Amino acid sequence: MTIGEYSQIYRGKRVVNFQMGDTPAGGDVVYRLTQDYDSAESQRELLESFLSQVDPASLEALIIGAWSEAHDEGPQGYLDTLIERRAQLPALKALFIGDMTYEDCEISWIIQTSYNPLLAAFPQLQSLRIRGSTNLELQAFQHEALEELAIECGGLPSTIVDAIAGSTLPALNHLELWLGSDGYGFDGGLAPYQNLLGEIDPTRLRYLGLRDSEISDEVAAWVAQQPWLGSLRTLDLSLGTIGDVGAQALAESPYLGSIERIDLSHHYISPQWQEKLRALPCEVVLDDHEDEDDGERYVAVAE
Questions:
Q1: At 46, which CATH number?
Q2: Which residues pair with 208 in a beta bridge?
Q3: Alpha-carbon span 124 to 143, nearest angstrom
Q4: Interstrand relation of 127-131 and 94-99 (parallel, antiparallel or unpaired)
């Protein structure tokens, strides 16, 4: 599976595209800035055109979609312009950088950049979602307002996980990381995630997503034995390779507590263990059952 659809709803609002030459549609929507592969305008020119036609002071959320030649350059022009115009964007609370499909650029090809300057420039930011991990840079940071951090990719380097573990994020309640496969950047095994959850106090998380993982069984077996598991509302292990080992660990966990939802979509779980999971006192999502291919399991999103 690859990412074949754009976000239609973001932060509870309808998403509307904005390209060079467009007039903003108006209304209570979130705009997605998007370029064609060979667009003539720069990232800066498109963003400045957009900001000249809306009220920047009222802008609460913004999506950066496909940018020209995303496999060769990152979104630095957008980020630099946002940083320069930050005084005009006091209400900006949510950013999604990289909302593009495989037709624009495969997820493992998306070039990213450093996000510490952006985070420092927007202390009011509550949500940051990033798609793509090639050239992604992040050092440990402090941010008082950030509630949601999500990184979607085909393979997440352990350096990024370590940076999050070293950060001070007192408001964080939604953490979503796509581990991916070792062919596309995943390099850390389980240990970096054990360290991460040990450092950030997971009892304050409402949502924990360790998604798209080729070690889903190992992740599930470890999470199932953590006393903080029941303090979550949602555990999301979807898009990965979980099978009966992980299913049994979760089904027999003594720490489910008041968890409301476990998402295991895209799985390799047998009918017998699916039945046992469905008997748990919470919602268990088991969509998209997969069959092994010559004994091999694959994550849903890699290249």
A1: 3.80.10.10
A2: 175, 235
A3: 9
A4: parallel
Q: Print the domain residue range for 62.
A: 1-133
* Contacts with 40 (C-beta within 8 Å, 6 or more apart), sequence order: 20
What DSSP element (H or E) covers 246?
helix 244-251
Residues 174 and 126 in one domain: no
Q: From the CA atom positions of the chain, what is the Rg in Å?
A: 20
- Exposed, middle or buried, 280 (CB in 10 Å: 0-12/13-18/19+)? middle
SS3 66: coil
Are 249 and 226 within 8 A, CB to CB? no
- Shared domain for 146 and 110, answered yes or no, is no
Tell me if 173 sits within 8 A of 148, measured CB to CB.
Answer: yes
Give the whole-angstrom CA distance, residue 170 versus residue 146: 8
pLDDT digit of tens for each residue in the chain (303 aa)? 568 899 999 999 999 999 999 999 888 999 999 999 888 999 999 999 999 999 999 999 999 999 998 999 999 999 999 999 999 999 999 999 999 999 999 999 999 999 999 999 999 999 999 999 999 999 999 999 999 999 999 999 999 999 999 999 999 999 999 999 998 989 979 999 999 999 999 999 999 999 999 999 999 999 999 999 999 999 999 999 999 999 999 999 999 999 999 999 999 999 999 999 999 999 999 999 999 988 899 999 988
Q: Quick one: 185 and 244 in the same domain?
A: yes
| Other Cβ atoms within 10 Å of 159 Cβ, number | 14
The token duo for 75 is 């979104």
DSSP helix/strand/coil, 150? strand
Q: List Cβ neighbours of 167 (8 Å cut-off, separation of 6 or more).
A: 140, 141, 142, 143, 200
